[in-house]
Amino acid sequence: MEIKSKDYCIWYDSATETITCQGSFRLSKMEEYAPIVQLLNDVAEAQPKKITLDLRQLEFLNSSGINILSKFVIKVRQQKNIQIAVRGSQEILWQGKSLKNLQRLMPSLELELE
Predict the structure, then answer these.
(1) What CATH number has the domain bearing residue 71?
(2) Which of 99, 93, 24 is nearest to 59 (CA)?
(3) Percent share of the chain, pLDDT over 70
(4) Can you give the pLDDT at residue 1?
(5) Of 16, 39, 53, 109, which residue is most buried, by most CB within 10 angstroms?
(6) How far is CA 72 from the centre of its chain?
(7) What does DSSP assign to residue 37?
(8) Bridging pattern class, strands 2-4 and 83-88
């Protein structure tokens, strides 16, 4: 599964159970996030044992993007049989503050900031 645009790329590698996001999620309307939401939902519904969400190369994420990631973490939490790890970068300012909030939604979430 892969979604590419001029501003961002997101894909899922089923062999490593990793969702990787690159670029900038600066979409203006929630409807524009629909393909990304569908990819995230498809991964959650496949119920891998552990999902790694690699955001180290996601340079920008607006409030709508934060909202979809939060909803994804809540969906995974509700399934109760999936562990989630989020990999971020301390060099990208928004990640330090925003990614810690995901742990509040799912305390068992593993957060790795490099």
Answers:
(1) 3.30.750.24
(2) 24
(3) 100
(4) 86
(5) 53
(6) 7
(7) H
(8) unpaired
Closest CA to 97 of 64, 73, 71, 61: 61
Residue 97 confidence (pLDDT):
83
Q: Which amino acid is at 22?
A: Q
Length of the chain: 114
Give the angle 35-73-40 at the CA atoms, nearest 5°.
Answer: 20
pLDDT at 65: 94
Number of domains present in the structure of the chain: 1
Q: Where are the beta strands (DSSP E) in the chain?
A: 2-4, 8-13, 18-25, 50-61, 83-88, 110-113
Q: Please name the residue that has the structure tokens 């990793």.
A: 18
Burial class (CB in 10 A: 0-12, 13-18, 19+), 65: buried
- Give the global pTM: 0.94
Q: And the tokens for 102?
A: 């995901």
Domain interval for residue 83: 2-113
